[in-house]
Amino acid sequence: MCSNGGLRDRLGALEQAVDALLSCDLTTVPDSELGTALARLESRTRTLVGLTARLAHERNHRNGPVPAAPGNAPAREAGRPAETRAAAPNRTSRSPRPTGSGIVADDRSTVARGVTVTAPVRVERTGDVVVWTIDNPEQRNPISDEATIEALENAVRAADRDHSIRVAILTGAGSAFSAGGNVKHMRDKAGMFGGAPADLRQGYRHGIQRIPKALYHCEIPTIAAVNGPAIGAGCDLALMCDMRIAATTATFAESFVRLGLIPGDGGAWLLPRAVGMARASQLAFTGAAIDAATALDWGMVNEVVEPDRLLETAHRLAAEIAVNPPHALRMTKRLLREGQQQSLETLLELSAAMQALTHHTADHDEAVAAMLERRTPRFTGR
After folding, report:
1. Of the candidates 193, 189, 188, the residue with the CA atom closest to the CA atom of residue 33
2. pLDDT of residue 25
3. Among 9-13, 88-92, 156-160, which is the least confidently predicted range?
4. What are the two backbone dihedrals, phi and then psi, of residue 266, each rounded to the nearest 5 degrees?
5. Is the Cβ–Cβ distance between 108 and 122 less than 8 Å?
6. Is the pLDDT assigned to residue 138 strictly greater than 50?
7. What is the DSSP string of 91-136?
8. 265: closest CA among 194, 183, 207, 338?
9. Is 169 helix (H, G, I), strand (E, B) or coil?
């Protein structure tokens, strides 16, 4: 733990280091060294963005919003379309709406000293459906940095706590769903890929493995809208969702073995449950990619559509799910999860206990009345 003085000293050292970097003449730095430095700096910057968001969220939760420093009004993004500006909240009259991840849902970036750092996960809500978009298209949406892990974990937990949200859609920005781990960071031993074996083990346990745990325990149904390549941990990320809609441009690869690695984020548990042991073994042992049509044939995805219809199709499926009573949805998902590992006897006991609860919900009474009266039910989540 840092004492007050220790924290001040470390922040002071960080400020001095940043000032020194900003004063560097980068035109004299060789391209190879500049590339390595950029990867390391980018990794640390994203980690700091995630840490800043988390600390701000925790402080706001304790004490209320932090007053804005003079002259630090949020900057408007250059080139932003007029219709987007009109739809955005008035930042001069009230603070933007924060999401559970500590990322502002209506603002994609943090601006400091003229440098724009894009938030790693964009959270957008339409009615009772929330969309999580991994938003780092320049690097094909890797999920191994702390900022993205933190943002995904917190976005999932926030949706899970909000009983007005009934379905979540997970997708990637740009042409890829997710490239999984950042290979350049692996080369540079940066971020979670640095340190001794014991450090790396803890880095996985307390880093990327938080994502499968969060999605596994999430009570609301989740849909992966796979817009492009889902590689390594990106393939596993799609499998962490309950359902998958793939664009024709999507590919799937359990490619860890090609990097001399093993599935470190739960792929060995997820993949056999999606495609069976024989096909999971084929994918994991060869590291080869399969296209969307093969993924559909193997049962890895529910549907394949053209790219321009992907989110529309995902939203349509989400709407078909969201019309149902939310408590029954959450309990049904829990039973499906438990059914993967419990005996029939145990599952029947759990089902009986949950069914006793659902019989006493207002939504059950409404569903029965609407069916008998031949009308559309109106569920309230009670």
Report:
1. 188
2. 72
3. 88-92
4. 100, 5
5. yes
6. yes
7. TTTSPPPB-TTSSBTT--EEEETTEEEE-SEEEEEETTEEEEEE--
8. 207
9. strand
Other residues' Cβ atoms within 10 Å of the Cβ of residue 182: 26
Rounded (10°) angle between helices 146-161 and 210-217: 10
Please report, for residues 39, 202, 213, 214, 322, the alpha-carbon distance to residue 207 in angstroms, rounded to integers and kept in the order given: 19, 8, 11, 12, 31
Three-state SS string across 217-286, please?
A: HCCCCEEEEECCCEECHHHHHHHCCCEEEEECCCEEECCHHHHCCCCCCCHHHHHHHHHCHHHHHHHHHH
Q: At 279, give phi and psi (nearest 5°).
A: -75, -35
How far is residue 72's CA from residue 92's CA, in Å, rounded to a whole number?
11
Q: Which residues pair with 132 in a beta bridge?
A: 123, 170
* DSSP code of residue 180: B
What token pair was written down for 101?
A: 């991840």
Length in residues, the chain: 382
State yes or no: pLDDT of 131 exceeds 60. Answer: yes
Whether the pTM exceeds 0.85: the reply is no
Q: Do 159 and 223 form a contact (C-beta atoms < 8 A)?
A: no
* Encoded tokens for 1: 């733990």
| Residue 178: strand, helix, or coil | strand
Cβ atoms of 194 and 126 within 8 Å: the answer is no
Q: Which of 324, 341, 332 is nearest to 379 (CA)?
A: 324
Angstrom distance (rounded) from CA 176 to CA 251: 9
Q: In what order do the strands lie in the sheet with 251-253?
A: 230-231, 251-253, 289-291
CB 284 within 8 A of CB 256: yes
As a whole number of angstroms, the longest Cα–Cα distance in the chain is 79
